[in-house]
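Contributing new records

If you add data, match the layout below exactly. Sequence lines come first and carry their own label; structure lines follow with theirs. Keep one chain per record. Anything else will be rejected by the validation script.
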Amino acid sequence: MGIKDELKMENLGGDKNYIIVSNPGAGKTEQAINHIINSKQAGLKVIAEPYKALAKEVYERICDKDTPLKAAISTGDYKEEVDINKVDIIVVTYEKLLFLLASGKIDKIDKVVIDEFQHLGSENRGTVVEQILIYLHSLSVEPGVMLLSATVRNVEQVAAWLNSISKKGYEIRDDKRNRANVEIKIIDGFSEGRYGRDKYAEILKIIARHPGEQGLIFSHSKAKAMGLVAYINKKTTDLDDEVDDYCECVKENWAFHTSGLMKDERELVERKFKDGEIKVISCTPTLAAGVNLPADYVIVADVTTAMC
């Protein structure tokens, strides 16, 4: 489902800040990239992402654009220092942006996009996002700020707080009418028994209630994520052999997605899921950190993680 006309960046005025709320996969980030690239105003353009993986993905998408603007990425992973004065667009993590603002390394900013801003309400990242917003709205020349999210719920409360610290104020563009209705099922005790096969039948019953729909199944280990696909596809019942025919799994409309796959294989799964060719992905939590895949239902097959 694409982003609605009233939420499209080209239909947003330039004198306000915006909170954009729309479904996962609706194209918010891509719209924001194009909006920043097409900005005629002087000043640095900034895109802030919660995770390094997301920052890298956005940076690569900008590099693929036909634009004379020079882009850079700064996430703390790179030894070389980015000269802010020599770039037009910089993609950063939340923590890197906070450091740049607090240290006074950037002050003349044209536009800032804060992606996945629902982290404002999280216990671990909330204070970072809050400080970023306070710094931005304390600058002598307030930049245009766009906050993007698919899951924030208390958007009116957030806007009220933002309007109290912003000179320009914020306008909400919330696609409530098309908000995704995702069923989430938590199956406790999946880890019990050898490879948790006593829970496979329960997972299959949930999937059977969603014919033709797409779902994500989260397991805490690569072995369980792969083992579920092997079980469903009846390839093997011995996880010592794992899954020896990965392409066959994809062809059967099921696939697993773990850090053990090559980058090209992960991208293949993600692309085929977005295109509707893959109906179910059995995955580890790494999929949730940095990959934006809209789903009709989500199964959390483990609520605990082994620490060793």
